[in-house]
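A quick word before the example. In earlier lectures we treated sequence and structure as two separate objects. From today on, think of them as two lines of the same record. Here is Glyoxalase written that way.
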Amino acid sequence: MVVMATTAAPTASDASLASVTLDVDDLETARRFYREFGVDAYVRLRASEAPSTGFRGFTLALTVSGPATVDGFVAAAVAGGATVLKPAAKSLWGYGGVVQAPDGTIWKIATSAKKDTGPATREIDEVVLLLGVEDVKATRQFYVGRGLAVAKSFGGKYTEFATGGGPVKLALYKRRALAKDLGVPADGTGSHRIALGSGADAFTDPDGFAWETAAPPVTAQA
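And the structure line, produced from the sequence above:
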């Protein structure tokens, strides 16, 4: 039996975001925080001392059912040691707030509803990983070339990719616009301190976000 590496382009499902791994200084503290915050099913954690200063260029966004649920997630994050970057408040689009976890990851919790229609829950409707990029159109084309399928696109402002069954949806946003929305300066240096996993081969995108191989790209042939 001869094992041969495949050279075919990855399919959309292979290339789609399958996992999100956060690099953290204190693994046990991070595990406890994400468990209490209620998002431990959506991220993986690993210990790392990679240097990082300022904005890391991404955020993880939770979409929930109503304002009371937003408040509940923000309160749980703060109780676990998170810092509030933007207090939960009404906006043109709904209601939401922004917190920064003890490990430095920024989380946005929001709802399109401006009023509650039921009691607060701990349910999450959707989790989106927003990458802040310099050129949305160019990075979108890069990912399309890698096999990802576009679900939504708004010119050079925003792109959302189709999921391949993973727990987190991937989207692109202008870096400076994302930083402004989160209430932080756009400048940052060093590691993004995040790794994206898929069934395709490992690579790094134009903005320095690293993707890891989730499965070896080999097939067995007789």
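Notice the following. The chain is about 20% helix and 40% strand. We will return to this example when we discuss secondary structure assignment.
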